[in-house]
Structure formats: structure tokens, C-alpha cells
Known about the structure:
- This protein is an alpha+beta fold.
- The chain has 2 helices and 11 strands.
- It is 14% helix and 30% strand.
Amino acid sequence: MKNKTVKGLAVSLGLITIMSIGGISAYFTDTDTQTNKFTVGKVTVDLTEPEWDKYPDKDNNGIPDQAEDLTPNKTIVKDPVITNTGINEAFIFATVEVPCRNIIVANADGTRKPAALTDLYSYTVNPGWVKMGTYDVRDGSGVIAHRYLYAYAASNVCTALEAGKATTPIFSEVTTANAIEGQGLEQQKFEMPIHAYAIQTSDLNGGKTAPADVWTVYTNQNSITEKYN
């Protein structure tokens, strides 16, 4: 290994000497490479219900005690909040699916309304959220739920949610329909799924910020075919 090292060094010196003595004209040149480094951002969100989660589930059936054996016109706490747990700012959307049935409900004074397709739960949307539309969820019997689409927005401009920040709750409580008894609702288990969606705010198809435009970009990329009216 030592001899090979010395020989290699000698050859190198010889080449330099020949170039100098021979007077060969040459240009000093140089090249360098700068590898620009980039990191890929990340858009992720968490959907939580801080106040709802405080209620106990003593029988461990996955349903907080406050949500069991509900009476008509009962109001309970439910507060879906979306937190940006990623790196980049994000525009936020959410869907709330409310089960519905063709039932008779009563007015506050006890008088009955005609049977109609009625949401089994109602709520008031909090400021900071804008309703975009409704989608009818169907099975073989017809419409069984209404799926409502909301944008975290002010008027017609989506609100950018910074990393580490949370939205206001979509709503803070829900109220059960004032349904007349004996319509097959008793002892039934109903679900109210909520889904959160997020998309980057920067370089979004020419700077789109209107909820309808941003949602279109999201649905196109994720092959969502539901049409909200």
C-alpha cells in the first residue's frame, strides 16, 4: 500500500512539471455544485371534542353517559374543534352527518306538526364557520341522513389556520328533535359522524381563497364525487 501511494504521488508531480516546462498554454477553470436543500411541508389536522370528552362513560360502551337515553328536546354538549398539527398553514373544511327520519314532531306547546323528513339532532353553527351545502345520504329506503359541509371562513374567504392553532368549535351543543313517542326511535343507536379536511393555503391554483374554489381543488385531488346543494 505504501509503494502504491508514493508512485501515485510521483506521477502527479511529473505531470505538473511537464506542463510547466513545456510552456503549454492552459486556462485555469473551476466548477462547483451547490445542492439546494428543501424540506417538504406537511398538512395534518386533529379533530377533537374537548368538552364532550369530559363526560364519563361509566358502562364503557363508547357512548358518554350524557348521550344515553336522551329525551325529546334534550340539549347536550358537543364541541368539535379542528387543530392544525402540521407544519404549513391550512384551509379547513368539515362535514357533519345528521341522521334524519320521516317523523312527527311537536311544537313547544305540544301541538303536532305533519310528518316530515326531520333531522334527529339540531345545532347552531358558531361564528367563523360558513355553511356551503347539503348532501343527501341514501340507502334502499331513501334519505337517511343529511351531510352538511362547512368551511372555516369569514364571508367568502377561507381563514388560514396556522400550525399549532385550533378553530373555534363548529358548534357547542346539540338538541334532540322533539319527536312524538312511538315512532320506532326508542332504544335506537344513532351516529353523528364529523369529518375534518385540510389543504395547504400557499400556491393553491393561482391563489384561490373562496371556499367553493378551494373545496373544488380538494375534491378534484381526492376524487370526492359528492355534490353539495
